[in-house]
Amino acid sequence: QVQLVESGGGLVQPGGSLRLSCAVRGSTTSATAMGWYRQAPGKQRELVTRITTGGTTNYADSVKGRFTISRDNAKNTVYLQMNSLQPEDTAVYYCNTWPYALWNWGQGTQVTVSS
Q1: Helix, strand, or coil here: 56?
Q2: What CA–CA distance (Å, rounded) separates 16 from 58?
Q3: In whole angstroms, what is the distance from residue 36 CA to residue 40 CA?
Q4: pLDDT tens for each residue of 60-110
Q5: Which of 20, 52, 67, 93 is 20 to 30 Å from 9 at the Cα level?
Q6: CA dihedral 27, 92, 14, 82 (to 10 degrees)
Q7: Per the omega criterion (within 30 degrees of 0), is the bond before 87 cis?
Q8: Of 26, 17, 39, which Cα lies nearest the Cα of 85?
């Protein structure tokens, strides 16, 4: 069974940066497109960004130019570099396959942007 382990979240001031990691256990990141999703309080989970097996990336308009997704297939890990964080980025961040979330969701990692 595939296990997703997200980490790297925390409390950061507006304008700050964080780097999230998603470790995939029981499968290989090289075999599937991966995405980062987030769920803010009272809102539905949404796709933030995704990366294909070939390395093509796409971003939600709200994070374009601020977030960068990458993958290290040797480590079975997907990363999300988040810069210029804003309060509206506050959410629990998850990774999963894209375009369909085929694996069980991990626990996510909380990102809180606040002064």
Answers
A1: coil
A2: 22
A3: 13
A4: 999 999 999 999 999 999 999 999 999 999 999 999 999 999 999 999 999
A5: 52
A6: 10
A7: no
A8: 17
